[in-house]
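Researcher: I'd like a structural prediction for the single chain below. Treat it as a standalone chain; there are no partners to consider.
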Amino acid sequence: MKRNILFLLISLLVLSSCEDLFEPAIENMKDIDLMYSNPQYAQGVLVSGYRFLPDAYGNTEYATDDAVTNEINNSYLKMATGSWTASNNPVSAWNNSYGAIQYVNTFLENCDKVEWDEDEEAAELFNMRLKGEAYGLRGLYMYNLLKNHAGFSSNGELLGIPIVTSPQNVNSDFNQERATFQACVDQIITDLNYAIDYLPEEYVSVYSLDEVPEKYKSMVTSYGTYNRTMGDYFRQLIDGQIAKAFRSRVALLAASPAFQDGSNTTTWEDAAKYSADVLNYIGGISGLDPQGVTFFNNQTELNNVNEGINPDEILWRTSKSETSDEEEDNYPPSLFGKGKMNPSQNLVDAFPDKDGYPITHGSSAYVDTDPYANRDPRLSYYIIYNSNIEGVSDAAIFTGSDSGTDDGINVLETSTRTGYYMKKRMRMDVNYNNSNGSWQKKTSYTPRIRYTEMFLNYAEAANEAYGPMGIAPNASYSSVDVIRAIRKRALDISSDPYLDECAGDKDKMRELIQNERRLELCFEGFRFWDLRRWKEDLATTVKGFDVSTGEEFDVESRSYSDYMNYGPIPFSECLKYDKLVQNKGWE
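Model: Treating it as a single chain, here is the predicted structure.
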């Protein structure tokens, strides 16, 4: 943490040009006091907090039973195969999150003194919005720290991370104990509630005073003042819906099996309530985007994204850009890609048949001699399997070891190791042919939060709290209702007999919800964290399938121990600070 504080102090002492490099004129040194009279500088301190946002996808699938990578030196591959230690932790959130929190705390301590605008109404609204963003960001980063580093100490105590809510300097005492897990959850919820109170649900400009959200009406006499402080221009910054979504995430994490303990009072009821708070804003189940299952390849929709507006499936996203990064990394070799993400046979087997039955069910239409026929359409949306027609040239992709093409198993360093390539996350109208100069870029973005995740959060929590057919007090839909809507969208079925079969059994419903979450959110960075919070086996061997032989084969073993359901505190931090207790197993 200390190095992050020093980094911030250096960043805040911005040096302008001067004649004497070693003795700069005093007016060229900018410090915290400048925040009070320079709102742009003050806002820059908060904007620095956004710089540490984690990657929206992350590729942690490489460390799960859903995929492997052909990058032999990939850090997640090494982690999954025995190199994960407290000093070598590729999923650590420690330095970045505490660095961001330092910026946020510095802003919160000083923002009320800033002269935000000459107009008093605008100044009050600017401060209100920016303060709400700051609380939302602190809740976000504390959630990431908790997800990555909470766990049980060797004496059985469920611990979180040190709670830091004021700015630190070089004279601060950095030797702080970890707070309890519950204290961390409480702090995160408090911060997110502040954000929700201060911020609008979304940043939307209005055209009359009547349209100004109720909580701001007494503060403005001109709707133009509201627009320039809370309007369209601020889209994709933290808003009320984003804060509510993180409240759903932290409650789901805390209610999960891995964190069940007498000291933890967060319940599945809490998680269901917070998730419903997000969904009610879009009308509940009626707000589920019919096209959301292929959000990444809805080409007309992607081409028309502008002005920070979100498609119906997306709650929060990165800025749009003209890129072909995903295609470069993950197209098969014959499409000039590097084929990095190789889905597993384990994941392929998780896709049901066209009617929604698991492929092992007695009523399934699955036939093992034609394994890709009569399957859930999501299989062909998300995974490239043998004989798929892909790319701008409608080329067949042949993945068997005897295919005679570069797309076959282990033919090149960029070829698949499993017999599959990832298709999700990519636009299939990108021509990434960098050999003849026709390399193309297309508009894309990365979702930070999809509404489908929030529906799945609710389904999981509501099933645990109220059973498959029960309904949270602030909702009008059950777990079964949500999963029925998700599967109807995916499978285009008028009836769902397998869901009906599960609807009377909480345990079977749990399995179905977990599987739907696996499918809907595959390759989006969820599987690794879900397995750990569910206390499921991380050490499942990854399987592949060779169509040339018709046989499954082992691709990569996993080397995890049970204590790895909880990530380590960085070894370097424990060496420096004796009050910082390590999680059990990582000592």
